[in-house]
Amino acid sequence: MALRNLVIEGDPLLRKKSRPVDEITPRIIKLLDDLADTMYYDNRGIGIAAPQVGVLRRVFIVDVGDDHGKIEFINPEILETSGSQVGSEGCLSVPGKTCEVDRPFYVKVKALDREGNEFVLEAEDLLARCICHENDHLDGILFIDKSVDGKVYKAESDDEEE
Ligand code: NI
Fold it and tell me: Is 153 helix (H, G, I), strand (E, B) or coil?
């Protein structure tokens, strides 16, 4: 079990574009494991992306508590989106803040798993929202950039964070 320090809003690292993984090395596997430890610690999060622990690589994980459990994404690519859903979001890197964000209701995403196998996943609702939120992190975009009313609010302590 290894927790990594979270990079917090205001740190320029969160605004950088992450680079693709060209080889799945033991370092990448360790990164995936540490992301999970850091996300699950204290039941804090439903998703976390590598830049949130200071690693500018195109890697994130999600676990929205559905039958999928934890899903790991390496070099994700969103292939299709449709529909729309407005809902509140939070982020481990933006503690204590929330706002309403408009996301696709459906996404089709392609990525590599930790064995290097390509998979395609179709997701809806909260899982689609979480995948879009994490994918944005890889391009230096935070959910607060996308507030539907341009405002950011103080979060309740039990809100889920991504
Ligand atoms: Ni986030």
Answer: strand
